[in-house]
Fold these 2 entries.
Entry 1:
Amino acid sequence: MGLFTRAVLAVLPHVPKPIMRRIAARYIAGETLDEALQRITQLQASGYTTVLDVLGEGIADESQARAVAKAYCEAATELARRKLDAYVSVKPTHVGLSIDENLAYELYAQIAAHCAPLGQFLRVEMEDAPTKDGTLRVFERLRHTHTNVGIVLQSRLFCTKADIQRLAPGPVDVRLVKGIYLEPASIAHTEAEPIRVAYIECLELLCQRGATLSLATHDDGLAARALTVLAKHAYRREQYEFQTLMGVREELWSKWKDAGHRVRVYVPFGPEWRPYSLRRMRKNPQIVGHVMRQMFRL
Ligand SMILES: Cc1cc2nc3c(=O)[nH]c(=O)nc-3n(C[C@H](O)[C@H](O)[C@H](O)COP(=O)(O)OP(=O)(O)OC[C@H]3O[C@@H](n4cnc5c(N)ncnc54)[C@H](O)[C@@H]3O)c2cc1C
């Protein structure tokens, strides 16, 4: 980690909350569901669909995990009531994976069952490598009972190609990402180009099995390579979409939208935004660099 990044990380916890809030406003919709819904409504008016995320992870208490599931159900109800083209995306340890895998399954199933009659979808997110197998087991159980669930897979991990081949037959909906967690070199690619190559290899396997795809990246070179793979497999526009993080490389969203691709924007919100953002930056200092570059560009 560079000296500059280390200095930024040391200073950030002492930056007054209102200033942090101003920096974060680009990436985080606010503290309340109402603020997130406002942002989602604006994005929809500009031609973008959305994914809603309640910030948080690593819940160690069952009642808190149950409260998180309830908050997601309420959010889904509100999205449907306002006829917004948005769905919820939930981190496994936010609904108790680190307490008990069965609890995480129960709560995901509860959210999926709530979303189904609303015509809504539920994305199971992927966290760091130690939680990956548990997350995939929960997802495979969910797939048996619910058709409105999808998963996230990370090209950074060596095992992802084998994981794709191990998924049970049948329709599958995957958000393919590079992976935000910096994993050790013994289990993951650590350099940019091998992560991109692995992304394309994973995409190839997913296309072969006809997966519905979300290409979640702001790497335009990679996106162009991905589109070539989709074209080779004769993917239609309704079988895939680009997904982007709120506030990140908006010029790409409009470029893709104008070219006729669907673009869905990830909208995180929640009272936990400050500790969550600090934790994320400490775990992956590259984010500090991204944010600083964005600020100076502005
Ligand atoms: C919708 C969505 C959902 C995701 N869900 C998950 C998940 O469940 N699990 C998981 O492990 N990862 C997830 N990720 C993160 C993903 O794994 C990558 O870490 C992230 O997208 C950065 O990789 P990139 O492909 O955009 O390429 P990079 O090469 O990292 O970024 C390309 C360019 O985009 C800009 N950029 C990228 N990220 C940021 C940022 N945070 N802030 C400011 N600028 C930035 C920079 O200008 C950078 O040069 C998600 C990403 C998206 C878009």
Entry 2:
Amino acid sequence: MRLSLNEDQQQFREEVRAFTSQLEPEPLHHSVDEQFKYLVDFEHRLHDAGLAAVAWPTEYGGRGMSPLEYAIVCDELGRAEAPEVINFVGIDVIAPALLVYADAEQLATWLPLMASAEEIWCQLFSEPDAGSDLASLRTRAEKTDAGWTINGQKVWSTWAQFATWGLLLARTGTAEDRHRGITAFVIDMATPGIDVRPLTTMTGSAEFAEVFFDNVELPDTALLGELGGGWQVAQVMLTAERGPYAIRRSAVLRGAMTGLQRLATGTADPLARQRVAEATIAMELLDLRIADVVATLRRGEEIGADSALTKLFLGQVEQTIFSVAMEILGMGGIAYDSHDAAVVAWVERYLYSRASSIYGGTAQIQRNIVGERLLGLPR
Ligand SMILES: Cc1cc2nc3c(=O)[nH]c(=O)nc-3n(C[C@H](O)[C@H](O)[C@H](O)COP(=O)(O)OP(=O)(O)OC[C@H]3O[C@@H](n4cnc5c(N)ncnc54)[C@H](O)[C@@H]3O)c2cc1C
């Protein structure tokens, strides 16, 4: 990551390096439960080292640092090819919305346990017929004397089967109200009437789930923000996905790029070498964009429509790195020893990379944004 650091920041980098220097390579996981447990343990370690949520206020378990220190942590974890942060949906995407809309007591209850991954959070936005067109969501929240009753279905909810809390968008107005008739709720995933069914992806892992709500009773305190203000809550989360989460993801890819260069060492095939060069250049371009994101956040400015380009680059770089790895592995990436942790990791990440042009807004939707909002083309 391209970060210019002063002496204090350089010293902080050394602190993070002291932590990453003790990390051992991630072992092969034999089940999603085992993988989950490993990643939670890793996050406990990160939290104990004071590095899980450095940019949060100190009273909620952070260190009150700037987005630059957050980027330093991500960068060092990426360089060390550290395990991925399991509670990223909570820490990077949901927490920024809680910091705007939750009260001090709620923040003190939720954030420290989120940072340590003792409580996992999930994002309950997408539905079978409402993904790109999120404003058409149909899960309903009806007002009752005691609070709210929820009925409906969500899908693709990352780590929902392990989640203690979910941030739910539900319709409180009419379908014609579109985004104005949507409200946000923080929901305890153990509430009766919630049925979470894990979905196995082509990687063989079930890292997300579909979630059904059958007359789920929520207290009034579950409401986050204003009635009918769910779209604004979602916008804060979307912006965070384009800011902190993009920084984290690019650092993960930088680590993968280092792995790719290692994999390619000694490859005589000129085409493979050319493809590695292409991936390297794409990664450098992504780094430049991320440097811009870090600078924008440090100035306290909003991430603008050009974040669609960052999202596009992220997806392209991810798919390029892992496609090139598969080309280098050749038959070794098709018929391989399933106990070979290194090869299994390349294959799984290659399969997962297909998702990078879907989650957080598809590549087509990003191109629409680039066309309409950056280039001024007609809809
Ligand atoms: C790994 C992964 C994790 C996810 N985690 C979560 C999560 O934690 N919580 C959550 O709520 N959701 C999550 N999602 C869901 C994700 O946000 C949606 O998949 C995404 O928004 C796309 O919606 P969709 O799948 O319904 O596809 P659709 O919106 O049905 O799109 C289908 C196709 O049509 C294209 N398309 C749609 N509209 C347009 C248009 N206007 N112009 C051009 N092309 C268009 C799309 O680009 C796509 O190719 C996750 C998805 C993945 C893959």
